[in-house]
From TrEMBL, chain A:
It is found in: Cell membrane. Residues 227-450 form the ABC transmembrane type-1 domain. This is Maltose/maltodextrin transport system permease protein. Its main location: membrane. It is a multi-pass membrane protein. One of its GO terms (cellular component) is maltose transport complex. Keywords: Cell membrane, Lyase, Membrane, Sugar transport, Transmembrane, Transmembrane helix, Transport.
UniProtKB/TrEMBL annotation, chain B:
Belongs to the binding-protein-dependent transport system permease family. MalFG subfamily. It is found in: Cell membrane. It is a multi-pass membrane protein. The chain crosses the membrane at residues 12-37, 76-101, 113-135, 147-167, 204-223, 251-274. Keywords: Cell membrane, Membrane, Sugar transport, Transmembrane, Transmembrane helix, Transport. InterPro entries: BP-dep_ABC_trans_perm (IPR050901), MetI-like (IPR000515), MetI-like_sf (IPR035906). This is Binding-protein-dependent transport systems inner membrane component. GO terms for biological process: maltodextrin transmembrane transport. Its main location: membrane. It comes from the Bacteria. One of its GO terms (cellular component) is plasma membrane. It comes from Lachnoclostridium phytofermentans (strain ATCC 700394 / DSM 18823 / ISDg).
Length: 464, 288
């Protein structure tokens, strides 16, 4: 059926798939003119409503550019020229503030204008293509689709456009534009000394990147250790939870274990507590005067006034955090692996038993390879998630213990929590943006390299 | 003879495994037990030199809803509920639309689209946080009180369309032949989406909805940045965090735990509901 459908509409699709260049070159005068007057081709060929919609979009854009857009592009290039000033008002005998330019808003409106302009170019292309499509249909003697046909196509061959429209607007506004905006800040001097609205900031090119990587600077002395710890943390956090969770699932799953449901319930209970609650509780429990230290004092392991520095000694803090993360993460792995373990063909184990393989051999030769095959995507997502695991670090140690060697970072800060401190606490927005870009590059490489090799990406139609 | 030694060995292993599980289980339950104990503790104040409370009371729970208190738990609860309901409607809608399109429809830009979405999805929302903060501020969303909650809904659901992978994995497992049979009967793609795919996908829809509903209850960082200092419009998570700040902690310490218990219960129930659907949903995504 699907094949038949394709054949019947092959003429339409071939016109729809024509690129902008061919449409413009092969199109007649009206089609070419549609690049200047949007929707002209449609208007002249009785597709009045479609043409009018395109034309009104063009007019709206031009109106926006004249009233606001051109000015915002100019401001975008300079990032503001007029500093806020104090002027003495003779009549009132007081100093008054004269509002100057706000570099941040200049940047923001500039970004919005650029995005709108890109949208405008997209419409230009659509206009020409649509005009060419109509022209072609008339030449071939085919009926020109009416506005009603256009609307019903939105539920049929163009259903993807209908369904994607609103989600994509959301993604555009809350993911793409912020990313673009943030990436631009990395190339400005927007730090604590250049705060808006009282002060201006300007374009500085790659200065911030150079500052971060230049040898001997405090920034690079912070960046490399923090990066190192971020990776150490991500590796440990991912694999401890993965391996221990899998072992736990196997222990509960094995033949001789009774009350399977009960054991699973006990471990799953900790997932049901919201993460920030369990993290804050853990912070309390391991505090200098928290229950753990109190208990150790009562047993007599440590002196009455002593306490084990769970969060104040750099190395111990790192170990504590990884251990607490096991408490949080293991139940999740247990849950996902339980289902998969039950899917492993029983015959494999029986065959291994016949061959006289012991528990270790069966685990490493059968269970682990099978699990790795199925869970690689989950593992990658978990690793990426741990690189950016803001909550665990921020709510447990707050990045502490603090150190004077670092530029506003503690010994357990990850890149993300350092970024948070740089931006929210210290207002060094440019440095924060640089770090975001670096983390983004790391993450994107990682996922593209690994995820695209996995079965669920290559073979998405396997189950259809 | 040999058989009995085998049985003995198996018995011993079983005992060891059960003891081990019991010890682990104890460790896993202990912190939860600590939360409940502290929430019932009569003595106010932060750290005590003993672990079990000297006296028990339910006052901590009552005090949470005390009107005179400057920390208004009841109000935070309602704020969070409103944000959660709207977030859940919008993001579930976005996720379902995108995942259906990516799984069932074929169009020119599809593969490119998948790659871009994957890279964008890798970018943690948290990193664009202050850009979003500036954008919302630039549009005056962060000035007046209630608008902040609207801003929060927009932030939570705005990028939701990118989280389509799990649901897409589920849609991928629905046989295409069903769709084709419907096409032969003259159904449009829209009909198929509405009348066949959606009803067949109840498990994944429930998971998507519940996940979206839970996000605002447990999110700390976005809420913190967007809601700022205005305590009236706090959500539960930031509200509870406030109770642990230096100026409040001595008086509100036990109440903090009472609050934690109160919000853990509904989330635990939701979680148990999700459990029933979870295995189907996730295994669909992992199987490939």
């Amino acid at each position: 059926m699907a094949g038949k459908k394709k054949k019947s509409s092959s003429m339409n699709t071939s016109i729809r798939d024509v690129g902008f260049r061919t449409a413009f070159i092969k199109g007649n005068g009206i089609t070419k003119l549609s690049a200047v007057i949007f929707g002209l081709g449609n208007l002249l060929h009785k597709q009045i409503i479609r043409g009018l919609i395109m034309l009104s979009l063009e007019i709206a854009y031009i109106y926006y550019m004249i009233s606001f857009g051109l000015n915002s592009i100019k401001n975008f290039i300079t990032l503001g020229t007029k500093v806020q000033e104090e002027v003495f008002n003779e009549a009132k005998q007081i100093y008054e503030y004269v509002t100057g330019d706000n570099s941040m808003l200049c940047l923001l409106y500039g970004v919005i204008t650029i995005v709108l302009t890109l949208g405008f170019i997209l419409f230009l292309i659509t206009s020409v293509k649509s005009a060419y499509g109509t022209q072609k249909k008339i030449e071939l003697g085919k009926p020109v689709p009416t506005f009603k046909d256009d609307l019903s196509s939105l539920l049929e061959q163009n259903l993807h456009k209908t369904l994607l429209f609103t989600p994509m607007i959301g993604v555009l506004c809350f993911t793409i534009i912020p990313l673009f905006f943030m990436a631009l800040i990395a190339f400005t001097s927007y730090d604590r000394n250049h705060q808006t609205p009282g002060n201006l900031f300007s374009w500085v090119g790659f200065d911030n990147f150079i500052a971060l990587f230049s040898k001997g600077s405090k920034l690079s002395h912070t960046f490399w250790p923090v990066l190192g710890w971020t990776f150490t943390w991500a590796i440990f956090a991912t694999f401890t939870c993965y391996i221990l969770g899998m072992l736990l699932a196997m222990l509960i799953n094995r033949e001789g274990t009774r009350f399977k449901g009960f054991w699973r319930f006990i471990f799953v209970l900790s997932i049901a507590v919201p993460q920030f609650v369990s993290l804050l509780t853990m912070r309390t429990i391991f505090n200098a005067n928290g229950p753990v230290n109190v208990m150790l004092r009562q047993i007599g392991v440590i002196g009455i006034r002593d306490s084990i520095p769970f969060f104040t000694d750099p190395l111990l803090a790192k170990i504590t955090i990884i251990c607490i993360n096991i408490w949080i993460g293991v139940p999740f792995t247990m849950l996902t692996t339980t289902g998969i373990l039950q899917n492993i063909p029983k015959e494999l184990y029986e065959a291994a038993k016949v061959d006289g393989a012991n528990a270790f051999v069966t685990f490493f030769k059968i269970t682990l390879p099978y699990m790795l095959f199925v869970t690689t995507p989950t593992l990658i997502t978990a690793f990426a998630g741990n690189i950016n695991n803001f909550n665990v670090i921020f709510l447990l140690s707050g990045g502490g213990p603090e150190t004077l060697d670092y530029y506003y970072a503690g010994k357990t800060d990850l890149l993300v929590t350092w970024l948070y401190k740089l931006t929210i606490t210290n207002k060094d927005y440019n440095l924060g943006a640089v770090i975001s870009i670096l983390v983004f590059i790391i993450m994107a490489t990682l996922t593209l390299l690994t995820y695209r090799r996995t079965g669920s990406y290559k073979d998405e139609e396997a189950f259809q | 003879m040999k058989k009995t030694t085998m049985k003995m060995r198996q018995l011993i292993t079983n005992i060891i495994v059960h003891v081990f599980l019991a010890v682990l289980g104890f460790i896993w339950v202990l912190p939860i037990f600590f939360v409940i104990l502290t929430s019932l503790r009569k003595e106010a104040g932060q750290y005590k030199s003993y672990i079990f409370p000297r006296a028990y009371t339910l006052d901590n729970y009552k005090k949470l809803f005390d009107q005179a208190s400057s920390l208004t738990f009841g109000r935070w609860f309602i704020n969070t509920l409103i944000v959660a309901i709207f977030t859940c409607i919008f993001s579930a809608f976005f996720v379902l639309c995108v995942s259906y399109v990516m799984s069932r429809l074929r169009f020119k830009m599809r593969k490119k689209f998948l790659n871009i979405a994957m890279i964008l999805g890798m970018f943690p929302g948290f990193m664009s946080m202050y850009a979003i903060y500036f954008i919302l501020k630039g549009f005056g969303m962060l000035e007046a009180g209630p608008l902040k909650l609207v801003a929060l809904v927009m932030v939570y659901s705005g990028g939701a369309g990118l989280g389509f992978l799990v649901a897409k994995g589920f849609f991928d497992t629905i046989p295409k032949t069903i769709d084709e049979a419907a096409f032969i009967d003259g159904a449009t793609k829209w009909d198929v989406f509405r009348k066949i795919t959606i009803p067949l996908s109840k498990p994944i829809i429930v998971i998507t909805i519940l996940n979206a509903f839970m996000a605002p209850w447990v999110d700390y960082i976005f809420a913190k940045v967007i809601l700022g200092q205005d305590r009236k419009y706090y959500t539960i998570a930031i509200g509870l965090w406030t109770m642990l700040e230096k100026e409040f902690v001595e008086y509100y310490y036990t109440q903090f735990f009472a609050g934690c218990v109160l919000i853990s219960i509904p989330i635990a129930i939701l979680f148990l509901i999700i459990q029933r659907f979870y295995v189907e949903g996730v295994s669909g995504a992992v199987k490939g």
